[in-house]
């Protein structure tokens, strides 16, 4: 069974993040950053830590790497899979210059004193969904009553599902939660271990249809913004030190990355080929379908790739506080910056063949 980016990881608790950043700091060599460079001298050695194994959400990054866009701006990029300690502490301590994470882990990290900043979102809207078999008898959130959710047992999962059900007039107490961890959710549902799971629509739901030929349905989070907030996942982050000490590196990295996502938007087949060349362990049918799916979702029409809205950050921060997932309100304006993003609008997507 291949590993898939099946779901968002639950937000770490504040004490857990504090422990992780202390541990990461202890493992740090001496906080050295990449060597300097301007694209004309020695390339700067830079590490990007992924949030999961390579997948179509990373298509622009692999396109930029395979086509030499990072090399063009004097960056010698190493892409690594996530550490057991999580991405934020590793980036904060300089072990990696950049990372991919999500707002539900970045905000608790900042609350714990981990100095990381979001510098771009890979997707302007959350692509998460609750997925279930088509014959599960679920058509709307209140239908989740008397069904079983399989997940990590995280408080964010519970809060989101409770709010969705209650907002639609249902009784959240009638939803059963079971902790199953990182399993093949489709198999779990087919074996009646649970009825629904939290997935990325453009990966697991697509895999069920495209690769496994299983009829599934979803409740996309983005269709219920009256009940739960939108938020940025996945996103690119760096440390506050890198922003302050080497803004040129941040700008160059994002310039090359934006070029990669422009390619992924305008030519998803080429982007899929480049992703699969870099990660040949991926299922080709899924890689191609998912890259095509994301092509029209990597940027808002007429807007630059990567931009973030203060209101989205603020609303999600308030949600975490209201839900008791953060102890107190944060300055969410300080949690992100669009300062280093290219300002040209992203290209129009190619005609998509994926719904």
Kindly describe this structure:
By secondary structure, the chain is an alpha/beta fold. The chain contains 13 helices and ten strands. Strands 2-1-3-10-4 form a five-stranded mixed beta sheet, sandwiched between helices. Strands 8-5-9 form a three-stranded antiparallel beta sheet. The two termini are 26 Å apart. Residues 1-18 and 20-39 have low confidence and may be disordered.
Nearest-integer average pLDDT: 89
In the predicted model, the low-confidence regions spanning at least 5 consecutive residues are 1-18, 20-39
Whole-number radius of gyration? Answer: 20 Å
Largest sheet, spatial ordering of strands: 2-1-3-10-4
How widely separated are the two ends? 26 Å
User: Major beta sheet, specifics?
Assistant: 5 strands, mixed
Q: How many DSSP-defined strands?
A: 10
The topology string of helices and strands comes to: HEHHEHEHEEEHEHEHEEHHHHH
* Strand residue percentage: 5-15%
Helical segment count: 13
What is the share of helical residues? 25-40%
From the helix content, strand content and strand pairing, which structural class follows?
alpha/beta
Shape: globular
């Amino acid at each position: 069974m291949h590993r898939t980016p099946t779901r968002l990881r639950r937000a770490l608790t504040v004490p857990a993040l504090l422990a992780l950043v202390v541990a990461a700091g202890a493992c740090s060599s001496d906080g050295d950053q990449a060597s300097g460079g301007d694209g004309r001298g020695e390339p700067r050695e830079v590490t990007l830590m992924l949030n999961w194994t390579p997948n179509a959400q990373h298509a622009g990054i692999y396109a930029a790497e395979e086509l030499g866009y990072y090399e063009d701006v004097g960056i010698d990029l190493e892409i690594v899979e996530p550490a057991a300690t999580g991405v934020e502490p590793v980036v904060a301590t300089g072990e990696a210059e950049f990372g991919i994470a999500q707002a539900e882990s970045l905000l608790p990290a900042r609350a714990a004193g981990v100095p990381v900043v979001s510098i771009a979102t890979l997707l302007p809207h959350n692509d998460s969904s609750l997925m279930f078999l088509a014959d599960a008898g679920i058509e709307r959130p209140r239908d989740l009553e008397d069904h079983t959710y399989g997940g990590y047992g995280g408080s964010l999962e519970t809060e989101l599902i409770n709010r969705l059900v209650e907002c639609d007039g249902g009784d959240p107490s009638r939803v059963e939660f079971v902790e199953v961890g990182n399993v093949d959710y489709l198999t779990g549902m087919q074996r009646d271990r649970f009825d629904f799971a939290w997935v990325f629509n453009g990966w697991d739901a697509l895999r069920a249809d495209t690769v496994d030929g299983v009829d599934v349905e979803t409740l996309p989070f983005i269709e219920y913004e009256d009940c739960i907030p939108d938020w940025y996942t996945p996103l690119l982050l760096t440390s506050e030190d890198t922003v302050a000490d080497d803004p040129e590196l941040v700008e160059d990295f994002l310039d090359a990355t934006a070029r990669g996502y422009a390619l992924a938007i305008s030519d998803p087949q080429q982007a899929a080929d480049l992703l699969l060349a870099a990660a040949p362990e991926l299922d080709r049918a899924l890689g191609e379908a998912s890259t095509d799916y994301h092509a029209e979702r990597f940027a808002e029409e007429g807007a630059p790739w990567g931009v973030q809205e203060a209101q989205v950050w603020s609303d999600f921060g308030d949600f975490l506080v209201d839900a008791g997932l953060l102890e107190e309100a944060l300055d969410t304006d300080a949690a992100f910056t669009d300062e280093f993003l290219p300002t040209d609008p992203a290209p129009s997507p190619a005609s998509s063949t994926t719904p």
